[in-house]
Specification:
Elements lengths: L6 E2 L20 E2 L3 E2 L9 E4 L5 E2 L5 H4 L11 E6 L8 E9 L2 E6 L5 E5 L6 E5 L4 E2 L4 H8 L2 E6 L2 E9 L4 E5 L5 E8 L2 E6 L11 E7 L4 E7 L7 H46 L17 H9 L9 E4 L5 E9 L9 E9 H4 L16
Parallel strand pairs: 4-6, 13-15, 14-16
Antiparallel strand pairs: 1-2, 3-4, 5-18, 6-17, 7-16, 7-18, 8-15, 8-17, 9-10, 11-12, 12-13, 19-20, 20-21
Keywords: Membrane, Transmembrane, Transmembrane helix
Length: about 375
């Protein structure tokens, strides 16, 4: 048998043992990359892969873009959506650049039957007679008001949804499982969304039949968009943020450094003012007095040994100790420096008893 419409005979027909059953297996199997059961008016569906675009003649766009072939009037082409990812929504896009289409979608391959007019060759898509329309009741009437109804097949209920394509882009979302979709008069773009939370993508395939109302040109494809990280963009953004953060740190460090310098200057000014407000007095120092001076004569009559007296005393806040400053005469005659000032910490209780400390001037605090 000369098989057409992407069908072939079952391999068992090649065996002579089963030749008496071969007539029933002629053209009953789909060719490679096609799926379905091409018997009793059913067809084979071209398998579509993610991100692969097909023309309306079921060929890849790379193969048909050099010589475009339109879908003739009343001719039908069949596609099958095979999901790649089980947890990502499917987005089917049909672009019609010229002409008009009718589109049919079903989760089963035995839903649609093609009747061919033997005189004109026109295709008419009908539902298989095994699908029984649900008896009319109140619930069906409510669904009919929303543009949908129900059919039965093998004890399973299918929701039938019919839509008219309008505008430049028609958006449809199948938010219910086991839905049969009819889209009429598609002349521009259709975006059909199949949510993964509603449909069992692991076990469900979606079968599509497209019929030309007018001679039509266009493409059909589906996508399952995932979040992808572009390494170039990632590193560009990362280093941009890193250098911005580094620049902010440098600016903050410079601001802190300037604040520390201003604080140190203010502290230095306060210390200088504090030192300028300290009490002071003048001391007369007699250097190298002659032996006949009145001072030497009084010292000689009083006591032979001399004592050390400070030129300045700075008591501490508690009055127990003080910083005493004395003049020290250095040995030698022909030296550049012959006298220096020395300071030491002394205990007032030992050097100056309590009764003799009335003359000491307490150091007042200045801020």
């Amino acid at each position: 048998c000369n098989c057409a419409n992407n069908t072939e005979s079952d391999p068992t027909c090649q065996s002579s043992k089963n030749s008496h059953h071969c007539w029933a297996l002629q053209c009953s199997k789909c060719r490679d990359s096609y799926f379905g059961t091409p018997t009793d008016g059913h067809q084979c569906y071209k398998q579509m892969n993610v991100d692969y675009k097909f023309c309306l003649d079921a060929k890849l766009i790379e193969d048909c873009k050099t010589k475009l072939k339109p879908l003739a009037v009343a001719q039908t082409v069949f596609f099958m959506v095979q999901p790649r990812f089980m947890n990502v929504d499917i987005r089917l896009t049909v672009d019609v650049t010229q002409g008009g289409l009718d589109l049919f979608v079903s989760p089963r391959d035995d839903t649609f039957v093609v009747d061919v007019n033997m005189s004109t060759g026109a295709h008419t898509i009908n539902m298989d007679t095994r699908y029984i329309w649900h008896p009319s009741d109140e619930s069906v009437q409510l669904e009919n008001e929303n543009g949908s109804s129900n059919v039965w097949h093998s004890g399973q209920v299918f929701n039938v949804m019919e839509r008219q394509a309008k505008g430049l882009t028609t958006f449809i979302t199948l938010g219910q499982r086991n839905t049969l979709l009819f889209v009429r008069n598609l002349t521009n773009r259709l975006v059909l969304t199949l949510p993964e939370k509603v449909h069992e993508l692991g076990s469900t395939r979606f079968y599509i039949a497209v019929t030309a109302v007018n001679q039509a040109y266009g493409t059909i494809f589906f996508r399952q968009d995932q979040l992808h990280i572009d390494l170039f963009v990632f590193f560009s953004v990362f280093f941009s943020c890193f250098f911005l953060f580094l620049a902010a740190c440098v600016v903050a460090w410079k601001a802190k450094q300037a604040a520390d310098v201003r604080r140190a200057r203010r502290r230095h000014v306060v210390e200088m003012l504090h030192m300028a407000k300290r009490p002071f007095a003048s001391v007369t120092v007699l250097l190298d007095p002659s032996r006949n001076s009145p001072y030497r004569m009084r010292r000689g009559r009083g006591r032979a040994s001399g004592d050390i007296r400070p030129v300045a005393i700075e008591p501490t806040d508690d009055g127990v100790a003080a910083v005493a400053t004395v003049l020290v005469r250095l040995p030698g005659n022909n030296v550049p420096v012959r006298m220096a000032m020395a300071s030491t910490l002394i205990l007032l209780a030992r050097v100056y008893p309590t009764n003799n400390r009335a003359f000491l001037r307490r150091r007042s605090s200045h801020s």
